[in-house]
Write a structure and sequence with these properties.
The structure is a single chain. This protein has three helices and 23 strands. It is globular. The protein has two domains: about 140 residues, Single Sheet (S-adenosyl-L-methionine-dependent methyltransferases), CATH 2.20.130; about 180 residues, Galactose-binding domain-like (Jelly Rolls). A hairpin with a 7-residue loop joins β14 and β15. By secondary structure, the chain is mainly β. It is about 10% helix and about 40% strand. The two termini are about 25 Å apart.
Amino acid sequence: MDVFRTLVPIVLGAALAASAAAGTPTTVESFDGGVNLANWSYVPAFAFAPVGGNPGAYAEGDLSNTKIPRFTTQWASVFTGDFRGRNVTHLGIDLLVDAATDPGGPRPVVLRISSLSCTMTLELSQQIPQAGAGWVSYDVVFDPQGTTMPAGWVPGGSLCTDPDATWNTIMENVRSVEWNLGDPALFSTYEYGDWLVGADNARLTEDNPWVDLGGGSPGILGVPCLQGAGALTPGSSVTLALDDVLGASPVLLWMSAAPVPFPALGGTVHAHPFAAQIFAAMDFSGHLVGSANMPPAASGTELTFQFICQDVNVPAGLTLSNAVRGTVP
């Protein structure tokens, strides 16, 4: 991928013209255009509402015979993974209650984060939105590098009773993020009811310059895995590595400065419209690495990278890698 060294400055030139400077990278899922990075869902009933969000589209749950509406991730995405390694410092959501049968008095919003075996919850000081009162924003800030469970968090799960051990386990392997309109610990005290609820602007902030946006689609070896590395400071080495693709297969790298994601090939195309593209081929072991030196760029400049990979074993003959976004510090 020697051509990578030539095209990176071209893409950065487009990025400087198209990207707005930003501080710490924040990912926001607005649900506009039907894009849903983490397959967020109200369980068990979920639909996209094209208007009425905060603003634009939003996720709507029309729930019957329900005690606690919960809005949760459904698969691996930027909203899950190694929060400590990525230095994720913030989670947030906007919530709406359009209508509800009597919820039985004030209810808190409770954030629940889980790994494979452990769960922990945080009861927010804010109550759930009042029916018909409009959107309310909820945000939680934490230090993923800390090794003791912060005040307010409560461990859960029969295998995870030690607070500090639970905190460390989950921070290094988050498998789900869940916003609850009520306290799960009080489930037995709540009455069943009918709810019409909404969620918008699911958000996450991290200090790592690289963010895994997900969006990959499976091939014969699974979902092609793309990783970005490098400080993204002027003169530093920027490296992209692609794995889990058949050896010697042709691939196409797209690089975008102002992406507009859309669903395709069983995943999500994030690096489109592309500012540049590179044709390459996997080596015979199914591995590909490309590097370039980072030229000067404005702080906050964002670049999104994603591969389209040939795989004759899938119906479309093509798969998508996950996308990664690098943000200049």
